[in-house]
Design brief:
17 helices, transmembrane helix
């Protein structure tokens, strides 16, 4: 290999680091700001008591699960948008705007279905899974918090659009407004409404819904999405719009199903932990909150890689796609190591800040809490690597095989390991998290190998 070629590759690597950083850092901050609303909700519930954290926390997790599945189904439009922009020209730009408009229309339809489904799930859990008091509290909280789900869905669509068009800073502003709204609302409720009994859960749910509605509205305004919708639905004929909607759903359903396999397995495991008692559920919620927060940079990298790979796939530059994937894997691995170091250094303050009744939990767990944090750290690293590879596969519009890999990893490996180990370990929640770790590790390995294989032959178009 010539010296010129070596320097050329070196320049490409540095250029890709720069381009990834321009998308990743603002988007990562926006992701963290977005999830901070849910985390603040869990902290506020923990401030009320362990019972409120256990019941309201699992509702927040159910809402987050439903939103992520819907978001993943729609988010394929981000790769389609990137490929359309990569092709360039007036036709490519028109197709890109059409995909955005169709994604908004699909989000509107799925949001109504999601609200009804979440309420139904809580009713079923109240009847057959939760303890009586936990079930009643969960239903009270969900009755008002569920209306934040549509705002979360629309915000997710706008976040994907903003990252694909290089406007992540606008999304960051919208997320900041939502977080500020929740912080102010929760402070007022906790300050003035503590003596209202179970009604405080309803009021906390109302604050949650209002905060997400504000975040979604601000994202619409800052990205000027209304002009895009007007151009798309007025200037384009119905057959073109119908075809774009069908393309998004065709590309997105395997992604949504793959994410659903992970989230549904985790949700069922959470219900299993909830049946083991309030202390177990509180620790599980704490670990979920930590993993959720630390996954936000990984999710930002997932979207960043999807944008970059889809762009070069549209241009037919498969070697550049490989470079994007390599840079992203190293980049997010270093970020994950920094997160792990933070968790291990500050695990005690995190624990005490998140759970008000620490005596109840400490009496049940003793010194076993540090083991929980170690397992969570392993999940953080493996989740970061699988996020980068799955984003690269999505950029190639390779959907169905990764979906089968996800189902295999999270159900056949992760879920079964979790259920068996929950019976063998002193703390069921520890066994559950070791199983989750095994599933994520399997997914990371399979999807990384898959991307290397398909990129080497320049293949994958709606597979």
């Amino acid at each position: 290999m010539s010296v010129v070629s070596l320097f050329g590759k070196k320049n490409i690597f540095f250029e890709e680091i720069r381009e990834i950083s321009k998308i990743f850092f603002p988007l990562s901050l926006a992701q963290v700001m977005q999830v901070s609303i849910t985390l603040c909700a869990n902290l506020a519930l923990g401030g009320i008591g362990v019972e409120a954290l256990a019941s309201g926390g699992i509702c927040n997790m159910l809402i987050q699960t439903g939103v992520v599945i819907v978001q993943s189904t729609i988010s394929s439009f981000q790769s389609l948008l990137g490929q359309a922009r990569g092709r360039g020209g007036a036709e490519g730009e028109a197709a890109a705007e059409r995909f955005v408009a169709c994604a908004c229309a699909i989000a509107l339809g799925l949001s109504g279905f999601l609200v009804a489904l979440l309420v139904l799930i809580v009713l079923v859990c109240q009847a057959i899974v939760f303890e009586t008091s936990m079930g009643q509290d969960a239903l009270l909280y969900m009755s008002s918090a569920v209306f934040g789900a549509p705002g979360m869905v629309f915000f997710s669509v706008m976040r994907s659009y903003g990252s694909a068009t290089g406007r992540s800073a606008s999304i960051l502003k919208a997320a900041g407004c939502g977080t500020l709204a929740y912080g102010v609302g929760a402070f007022v409720v906790l300050l003035f409404c503590r003596g209202m009994g179970q009604s405080i859960l309803v009021m906390m749910g109302v604050v949650f819904s209002i905060a997400w509605s504000i975040a979604a509205t601000m994202s619409f305004l800052t990205l000027d999405i209304f002009s895009v919708l007007k151009r798309s639905f007025v200037q384009h004929e119905w057959p073109a719009i119908k075809n774009s909607c069908a393309t998004i759903l065709h590309a997105g359903w395997p992604v949504g199903l793959g994410v659903a396999s992970e989230m549904s397995a985790n949700t069922l495991l959470a219900m299993f932990v909830g049946a083991s008692g309030v202390a177990q559920m509180s620790v599980h919620q704490l670990c979920q909150s930590i993993e959720l927060l630390t996954f936000m940079p990984s999710l930002a990298m997932n979207q960043t890689v999807s944008v970059r790979v889809s762009y070069f796939h549209g241009k037919g530059e498969h070697d550049r796609s490989r470079i994007v994937h390599h840079v992203a894997m190293v980049f997010i691995f270093l970020v994950a190591l920094a997160e792990v170091a933070t968790i291990l250094l500050f695990h005690n303050p995190i624990y005490r800040a998140s759970i008000s009744d620490t005596g109840v939990v400490s009496a049940r767990f003793g010194g076993g809490l540090y083991d929980m944090f170690l397992v969570v750290c392993a999940v953080v690293v493996f989740d970061a690597l699988q996020a980068a590879s799955s984003g690269a596969l999505r950029g190639k519009l390779d959907m169905k095989i990764p979906m089968l890999m996800a189902v295999t990893s999270y159900w056949i490996v992760g879920f079964l390991f979790a259920m068996v180990l929950a019976q063998l370990t002193p703390q069921p929640v520890l066994g559950v998290w070791i199983g989750i770790c095994a599933g994520v590790f399997c997914s990371a390995c399979l999807q990384t190998v898959r991307f290397i294989r398909i990129n080497s032959v320049g293949r994958a178009e709606m597979t």
